[in-house]
Amino acid sequence: MRTSGVSAAFILAASAAYGAGAFAENGVSASQISIGQSASLTGTAAESGQQTRDGALAYFELVNRQGGVNGRKIRLITLDDGGQTKRGEENTRKLIAEDKVFLLFGYTGRNTSEAALPIITQANIPFFGAATGGETIHGVFNKNVFNVRASYKLETQALVNFLVTTGQKKIGMIYHKDDTTKSNLKMTEDAAAGHGFALVGSASVDRNSSDVKEALGIMSKLSPEDAAVKPLSEFVRQMRKSGVNSQFLSVSFVGSAIVKELKSEAAGVIMAQIVPLPTKKRIPIVSEYQNALAAVGAKPEYSFSGLEGYISAKVLVEGLRRSGKVVTRAGFIKAVEGIRDLDLGDYLVGYSPTNHNGSKYVDITVINKDGVFFN
Predict the structure, then answer these.
(1) Once rounded to an integer, what is the mean pLDDT over residues 360-371?
(2) How far are the Cα atoms of 183, 202, 234 from residue 177, in angstroms, in the given order?
(3) Which pTM was predicted?
(4) In angstroms, rounded to a whole number, what is the distance separating the alpha carbons of residues 350 and 345?
(5) Which sign does the torsion angle of CA 256, 262, 267, 268 carry?
(6) Which CATH number is associated with domain 153-273?
(7) What does CATH list as the number for 13-149+281-359?
(8) Mean of the per-residue pLDDT values for the chain?
(9) Domain segments of the chain: what residues?
(10) 93-102, 200-209, 315-324: range with lowest mean pLDDT
(11) Residues 286/45/273/165 CA torsion (nearest 10 deg)
(12) Whole-number Å distance between alpha carbons of 253 and 111
């Protein structure tokens, strides 16, 4: 009987030790869930990177103030990659191997997200809510990758559709040199082909450089009516100085930094957006975002990237809530795949076991002479 008593005591102790989630993954403790992010906090995309992080942090802070997710608070570990592919790759390895995060969240570049793909596959770790619409992230199904925002393909289609409805079909394209598969160029070519015409030409530029001479030389000779570009600011400035009066368009990645860089020269630039206008408070998710910034004491500097980060954090937390008290990566993936037509406040997301792209929301905005986005 004495031996049985010891065994019973041992079994009870083991239950206490293991019952609260002993089989949870790295990054999960009784009181905390650690997630990792590689973001461009410095470099040419620093503003959008910081805004994405800060928008997410605002939501996480509100969740933590209310006790966290199923009793666990969210800890976001952000490492700066400066928009550099190699640094992003190094950050990914560090976050997984050294910081031992539960999942990766909110990466802010196509290039750094692409570099992370083979690493997350090897580590079998979720990669959630990257702030990129790159085709390698959105167009190829990966069981570990979940996107919240719409893809660049959907943005590009919306931009080309807009041009066609206004009678413009003479379009040129500028893309990043590190897009070795030319995925952004191809999706623009495909969007144009869908309307029965071809691009007049294309050129490439370095992601982290303001040297656009080569691209300028090519495009100025073509004199397109419209130029769909990603490395936008310096190219717009130089094209206008050369006397080319094209209409300039961009996908959402450029962000609001273009207004600070170009000032009055930004007037008339058309940009696709994958979240609503962050100043349009009548939209419920926008109102919630603005109120969240006020609640955490952040400056009321509303931005598209900040709202994107906030929305991505909100969807992530919903997935964690649905995962239950015993949090595992497999359980999280299954929980997110169970989210159907979730209305975040006039912003819908939905997933399934065969679809990991959450939103199809795309809006077209224009910058006015005062540097304000409107639609």
Answers:
(1) 95
(2) 11, 12, 16
(3) 0.89
(4) 14
(5) negative
(6) 3.40.50.2300
(7) 3.40.50.2300
(8) 89
(9) 13-149+281-359, 153-273
(10) 200-209
(11) 160
(12) 12
